[in-house]
Design brief:
The protein is an alpha/beta fold and 249 residues long. It is built from seven helices and 14 strands. Strands 7, 8, 9, 10, 11, 12, 13 and 14 form an eight-stranded parallel β-sheet that branches. A six-stranded mixed β-sheet has the order 1-4-5-6-3-2.
Length: 249
């Protein structure tokens, strides 16, 4: 059954209104008709079975038939702290990270970040990435949309999260395998239910950044003997962490 996103303020009692974008998809792309049934979700965890009906103004809307309970969220809430990647790589990372189950995404600027975004450009990118996260939720049947935060400098981020449990992917020795790190931190991670995963840009993190992360409680870890691209590293690490926490059983 087709799924659509509807903001909470577009649900008025049993009546549902669609955004122009979703309405275009319903009518022009999928060519759905009145009395067809669809699934909608509001991004906060609620999911509804809806039948399409014309509204008083003649516009196609919907009537809620029932609310369904469908919790597809991981027990472990991972904040992916991702250095901004070039081109469409960042779009891919966000899309696939949401499919895997991340709860938050924090884009950061680092010493070796090639793409530097500030002001209006940064705001537009953040809005685009949030839209990608929303569309990924539609596809993978998640009902809670992860928040994509505004772009922040890595140093500022690290200073703000002192005391939180975090892992940094770092390709330079010495480091421990990610499974070893997770096992060592598992009691704390699962007790809090939260973990910050820090992934670098194409050129990796600089030594001063790794030192700053360690001073703020992050543990350095690696993903084997080969150097992975930033988009590969993020998705491999997330897959391992969700598997080790029991989400992919």
């Amino acid at each position: 059954m087709h799924r659509f996103y509807v903001a909470e303020d577009q649900i008025l009692g049993e009546q549902v209104r669609f955004s122009k974008t979703e309405l275009h998809h319903i009518e022009k792309v999928l060519r759905l008709m009145p009395d067809d049934e669809i699934i909608i979700f509001d991004g906060s965890g609620k999911e509804y079975l809806v039948v399409l009906k014309p509204l008083a103004e003649g516009e196609l809307g919907g009537i809620i038939l029932q609310q369904t309970v469908a919790n597809r969220e991981p027990v472990l809430k991972i904040n992916l702290v991702q250095a901004i990647a070039k081109g469409e790589k960042m779009d891919l990372i966000i899309q696939k990270a949401v499919e895997l189950g991340v709860s938050k995404i924090t884009p950061v600027l680092t010493d070796r970040t090639v793409v530097k975004l500030f002001g209006d450009k940064a705001e537009k990118k953040q809005q685009r990435w949030q839209s990608i996260a929303r569309e990924a939720c539609k596809q993978c049947r998640r009902n809670q949309i992860p928040e994509v935060f505004s772009i922040i400098n890595l140093g500022e981020y690290l200073n703000d999260c002192t005391g939180e449990t975090g892992i940094m992917l770092y390709e330079t020795e010495p480091r421990q395998p990610i499974r070893t790190v997770f096992d060592n931190l598992k009691a704390n991670i699962m007790a809090s239910g939260q973990l910050n995963l820090l992934v670098g840009p194409e050129g990796g993190f600089s030594p001063p950044e790794a030192e700053l992360a360690q001073r703020n409680g992050f543990v350095l870890t690696g993903l084997g003997p080969r150097i992975l691209r930033t988009e590969t590293a993020a998705l491999v690490a997330l897959s391992i962490l969700f598997y080790e926490s029991g989400d992919l059983d």
